[in-house]
Fold each of these.
Amino acid sequence: MSFSTSDLTRLGDTLWEIPVGARADMRVPARVFADAELLEAILGDRSLEQLQNVATLPGVVDAALAMPDIHQGYGFPVGGVAATELPDGVISPGGVGYDINCGVRLLVLPLTVEEIGARVEPLVHELSRAIPAGMGRGGALELDDAGLNGVLQNGSRELLQLAIGTDEDVERTESGGCLPGADPAAVSERARLRGRRQLGTLGSGNHFVELQVVARVDDPATAEAFGLALGRLTVLIHSGSRGLGHQVCTDYVRLMDAAREGYGIQLPDRQLACAPASSPEGRAYLSAMACAANFAFGNRQAIAHAVREAVARVLGRDVARATRQVYDVAHNVAKVERYGGRDLCVHRKGATRAFPAGSPDIPEAYRAVGQPVFVPGSMGTASYVLAGEPASLERSFGTTCHGAGRAMSRTGARKRISGADLRRQLEAQGIVVRCPSNRGLAEEAPFAYKDVERVVDVVARAGLARKVAQLRPLGVVKG
Amino acid sequence: MTYRFLEHTGEVELELEAPSEEALFAEALAALLELTAGGETGEPERRDLVLAAADRSLLLADWLAELALLAELEQFVAERVVTLELDDLRLSATVEGRRGEPPHLVKAVTLSGLNVRQEGESWRGHVVLDV
């Protein structure tokens, strides 16, 4: 089904609704945070139909929500948020996605762009050598069974035993780098096989490591609390749970696809396969998902370690030691959170938790200013640092956007530009590019994404998060 | 026989058509090859695959998932079907390919819109890949 603006009711400056009566199987309305221009882009694919499908899930409460970076995915749209009431509301592995706990981690260096001078290109080159990228490649860490179990159960903290990361890194990670309830026995042998040699690897697709400079500060006090200042260098890491997470999702979509009839669940899209969170299938998935999420936290920690090693080789050991982690946030995860006296299972698929100041779930160092949120732009455009705001708890289950959001298919992007031409364009803008695949580079062209500034404007106007700083790219290592 | 990639904002959406069900599965391999080919070297190698699924659509998903997994774990890019037999809900196949440097990751084969059906003299398939 295709939509036009007239199918939606405008609820406010940045909020639109497809009413619950629009389709007989919807249990709650579907709501989109967007301005008029972003809404036009959103209407160009099937993302709103997918959001309506999410609104049919058993146990879903309040509304199926879409952030302004929403685009068509499978099952859930990317940028989709849905909460189901426990104990009997469903958990849907497709509502988390294949790349469980895909997320971003921001590091800040104790140097300014002036101080690094001509060493930008050597540093980006060294980052590309230090961090395995591309399809399925092995990484710096090869784990035996016990080591893998440790990461699956304990996440980031497990890597401290290998001198990878610091206590402060772990503290400055969403959920302390470890989701509770992880049970390695819920993870299949095939998933373990896929993950065994991938800890510390970037992967492919839209994953990247980017060297950036703080180009603008919107909220000086919060920026200072995050350790950011105008001109300072940052490194943004975007990766997830690699093949291990992909296989966990595959395994449990299949399990729930087979089991759902037994629970009397009818769905408009088979990829939404789900089961009550309290069921044996639901509990097993939550245990396996926690393992994959912990693996992803560990993966980004290992990549951050490789970044520090590269920094040490190019800029010196003292600079590496003083390179600090701002925070690490998940984009694809389901979590049990409490809203309005209800225990809810909040699915975030391409969306970021954005808890406000005062939340006990964010590090003490940030409790006065709110949780850091990182919104990567597309290659060649700015990324943003935001901070969670109180309205997120009232309007979006404590959630905000996760990126610019695709606006064009990969095929469409490749038709418009070759990887070689894009590489030249980016380098002409002064951005150092390292990417093993010209095809992969072309697919991530900046014009294939929505305008990230407009996306963050919407979440700021909606009161979900406020702008703290803008980060401009200096160099990118693409998976 | 044909395959084509449809416009999909986030992922890769694939439509298949072939005169037989076996040929449909061979077309799916050809489409995946377009995504994963790159830098293959050395002598051709063969792999035997035996799969079973609850329905034909899931069998197509499993087929693509197995081929994608060979690329991820062994850097083995399947280039052609040597033999392929479908028996009820089981598939037995031998594929030939070479080791290379597959540039494009297929993370998973989704169930979204997954479909295998016969229309007149043709077999049609539809699948969305997470990339």
Note: Chain A has 17 helices and 19 strands.
Amino acid sequence: MSRIPSVLWILLWLVVAAPALSVQRFPPPEFENEYVIPSPTTPMPRSEIYQAADVVVLTAALLAASWLVLKKRSRRAIVLLMLASLAYFGFWRKGCICPIGAIGNISLALFNSDFAIPWTTAAFFFLPLVFALFFGRVFCGAVCPLGALQDIVLLRPIQIPLWLETPLRLLAWLYLLMAILYAAAGSAFLICRYDPFVAFFRFSANPAMWVISFAMLAMAVFIPRPYCRFLCPYGVILRQLARFSKLSVTITPDECIHCRLCENACPFGAIDKPTVEWPQTERSKGRRRLLLLMALLPVLTAAGAALGYALHSKMAMSHPVVRLAYLTGLEQKGLLKELPEEIKAFHAAGQSSEVLCRQADAKQRQFAVGGALAGGGMGLIAGGMLIAGSIFWKRTDYQANRGSCLACGRCFNSCPRHRLRLKRNQQPEKNG
Amino acid sequence: MTNRNPDKLYRRTFLREGLWTAVLTALAAAAAALFAKSRRSPAMVWQIDPLKCIACGRCATHCVLNESAVKCVHAYAMCGYCDLCTGYFVPEPKELSTAAENQLCPTGAIRRTYVEDPYFEYTIDESLCIGCGKCVKGCGAFGNGSLFLQVRHDRCLNCNECAIAAACPSQAFKRVPVENPYLLKDQL
């Protein structure tokens, strides 16, 4: 083959479109010597056995965490387990697979008939939930690598006041509903894409994610576990399940003596203080407020649904088909100066714009329904939070809030009853 | 709570127990449905359909790994073994030699070895390849298109949502069964 003249080169670059067509322009040679045509290598993915091993490790870690939190009651042991989990699920497995991100897989699998998830992913999603039903949020306390990373950088904790904490929790709800909507529609796995700690596990991320990651880590030095409490979508689910768990973390091993020593032990504001009975005047006021809030509930729900519906076409733009249809629309109007790669690829593939528009419209409708449902859900939850906040709950002892408690074990040592028990347990050893 | 009768079933306890059982049943049902579904279909991994790929170059920049999991693969059976390989040489090369100035590959990841006159073999050094697809574009434009991009599964983390798939302009990424994780161009 001789050199192709330069004019021809340029012509060819211009004429032949980008798609790599498998055209046999030059027939494969017939070699005279004994050259054997090699075949490309195909290294295989990680075997399923290792994925099963991950599930075994997760189960073992959850069992150990439950025992340490509820029976052994040792903060030091919990920290050790937490570090081991951070090393395994975080740095060794590089943050993938995790139950938080599995929300995306589960949503996609539930809403799409042609997408199935491996049993290991489903196990990762369901195991911590089942444990939460029995033992509370032991996953958050000692197994989750994201939680562990935030826990070890917590050096200067500041208490978040309750009036700020409750509305901030709505963010996590919003994140959860958006993540389900986007994953179910096949747009994006938001939780994985914006995971603020996976960058540290992999030592690689795009610049924007590095900024978010470091900002989140810096925040975690002062605000105790900001991701867990105000963003984590899996935490939202765990919180609801832990509310009525069979067993839960107790500050004291036996009885509360109202010494108030644990009052400041929890950086996450998860210790509920004993309540004082409301005076009669307050009661009638509270009852009126409750009625008002209950009337507000449907209003909030409707407003949320309307807002979600209004935003649906913006959200739908996250889907590649909708984006492509939008771009072809711009192209037809002659608004695109330079054709993006998407349009070039679309034309090269020779698909019809009508089919594309039909697909985009179907997606838009999905987002309209999903957006309204998510918005309505947010309204309902916000209303529910308001109502829950204005109901009088009778509490006689200091206790860990079942939903909020992250099972970190920080409060154990503040309790004199706990220390007394430790002392008693050590005594026989000394005598022997 | 101390003065409560332990044998009596209180309304709050009843509600809590009922809700607990209901949630556990729901979780079990959802898990069973998903497990049944996963048994019917094999585990999936990400792969590039080489017939859809336009070698735009985003594979090199959008993978969550700093050195992309996508690399160039050579389907030797389709190769013309050309002396003037348009996947190897820049347009209008000074001479057909292995000098860096003549090479299209930014990292010099293609090895050119003489087989017999006038044929040369081109091999990808995967430790150098960054998956930019420049050679793929060059080979597809003027040659047989025997060079193509593939997700290399010894490197791929098999993310939930492949970051490159989300950025791929021709939607060439798809999930393929784990037993058969490559879409080799000469076998399609």
Note: Chain A touches chain B through 78 residues (CB under 8 Å).
